[in-house]
Design brief:
The chain is an alpha/beta fold. Helices cover 51% and strands 11% of the residues. The protein contains 16 helices and 9 strands. The chain has a 7-stranded parallel sheet, sandwiched between helices. A two-stranded antiparallel ribbon has the order 1-2. Helix 4 (85-95) runs parallel beside helix 6 and helix 6 packs across helix 9. The two termini are 28 Å apart.
């Protein structure tokens, strides 16, 4: 009952924040955001580039113009002692393509500590500025210099094994590959095994590949709250192909589709009938459906499920003017059809770039993740509000004893929040 109460509160707060445009409620939720940032008083100004080694001189001019440029990122009064040296050091390491700096930077963006969250946003803004300046003369800008591929599917469908084979093929072709693997966190202990890397023994030893397992930390959708930021950092470190492996998902976990250029759905043989492909959800968002384990005794089943999904996808509304979803069979065990699969992926990227759909997709994704960041933080801000905090324990007790409904308790707290502001 208590969980239902907070679910209702979260839905109401996000709805009002996003869609209320006038009156007291508009003023109310604007003031929440203003209070959140009103303490940020110290404006970060220029810093100096130190210890630039010979192997980073190619990036030095771009790096220096970014690091010395004043920004609008501000620090909390309580954090005025925070130095920019950590951000500068990590930025220099990332643009110099140092794996240790990239690993430390991803840890920074995953942190929930207030000071480190501010440092993470400052680092991300500088990495983005570096990438824009570095690729400003390219035909399609920064969009053409990286390819983000999301890989999702049910538990046991062969995601990690496929990434091992695909990643090795790409590094042998001269690409630098980053793998962001999300592992589910325990709902009881909060821990996570982070075992995806153990299935990628060859790829983990490849110096042109970087594998980063991360816990989901209760985040729904198959990814973590910081996966989007980790993608940016990997691209800043020179990785031109970023593979995002989700946790084992069902039909409604589609968050990864909002952070990648191409969304691939992996399905094992005998993974349902034609009706599964027609259902709304993850299947209708797939740009490419990959039938895995198409070898040995499973080959006939793989052919059958391929035919059924090809038939089903024809009934799904078209989402692109230049691309129709494909259904391909591969075998990671025998390494069958991997080159053909990559050719299809490159064709997808080329068509999307030429039609400007890739740029529009990334722009749309930025807006989606802005609201998801707000959603991640707004409930905690609501709980810490003085007018709400004093009533939480009493109302939760009344809800659990059946005196009032969760909906009534949620409305009471929202009214208390409204009056006190």
């Amino acid at each position: 009952m208590t969980r239902l109460l907070w679910t209702l509160l979260s839905q109401n707060v996000i709805y009002k924040l996003k869609f209320t445009q006038y009156g007291m409620e508009s003023h109310l939720f604007a003031s929440v955001l203003n209070r959140k940032h009103s303490h940020y008083t110290k404006i970060v100004t220029e810093s100096r580039v130190r210890n630039v080694t010979k192997n980073t001189l190619l990036h030095h001019q771009v790096y220096k113009s970014i690091i010395t440029q004043s920004t609008s990122v501000r620090y909390d009064k309580q954090l005025t002692s925070t130095s920019d040296s950590t951000v500068d050091r990590l930025l220099l390491g990332i643009v110099s393509q140092k794996r240790a700096s990239l690993a430390e930077a991803i840890t920074l963006v995953e942190s929930v500590h207030p000071r480190k969250k501010i440092q993470a946003q400052l680092l991300l803004s500088k990495v983005l500025e570096f990438m824009k300046k570095k690729h400003e003369h390219s035909l399609h800008g920064v969009y053409s210099k990286s390819f983000r591929i999301g890989l999702s599917g049910a538990p046991g469908c062969g995601k990690s094994t496929f990434i091992e084979v695909m990643g090795k093929y790409l590094t042998n072709c001269g690409h630098k590959v980053a793998v962001l693997a999300v592992d589910p966190s325990s709902t009881t202990t909060g821990g996570s095994l982070l075992g995806d890397k153990t299935r990628m023994t060859e790829l983990s030893r490849d110096m042109n590949a970087y594998i980063r397992p991360s816990p989901s930390c209760g985040t729904l959708g198959g990814v973590t709250r910081s996966t989007n930021e980790a993608i940016v950092l990997c691209e800043g470190a020179g990785y031109d192909v970023v593979l995002v492996e989700t946790v084992g998902v069902g039909q409604s976990e589609t968050a990864v589709a909002d952070m990648v250029d191409m969304f691939c759905l992996l399905i094992p043989p005998a993974g349902g009938d034609e009706l599964q492909g027609m259902k709304k959800g993850i299947a209708e968002l797939a740009d490419l459906v990959i039938i895995t384990k198409s070898d040995g005794d499973l080959k006939p089943a793989a052919r059958r499920i391929q035919a059924e999904y090809m038939s089903a996808l024809k009934l799904i509304r078209k989402r692109s003017k230049v691309w129709n979803p494909l259904v391909l069979r591969i075998s990671a065990l025998n390494k069958d059809s991997i080159p053909e699969l990559w050719d299809k992926m490159k064709t997808f990227q080329k068509l999307k770039l030429e039609s400007n759909e890739l740029q529009m997709r990334r722009d749309r994704q930025l807006k989606v993740w802005m609201w998801r960041h707000i959603q991640d933080n707004i409930t905690q801000m609501f709980k810490e509000h003085a007018g709400v905090k004093s009533q939480i324990a009493s109302l939760e007790d009344q809800v659990t004893r059946g005196i009032i409904t969760p909906g009534f308790a949620a409305d009471t707290l929202l009214k208390a929040f409204s009056k006190s502001t």
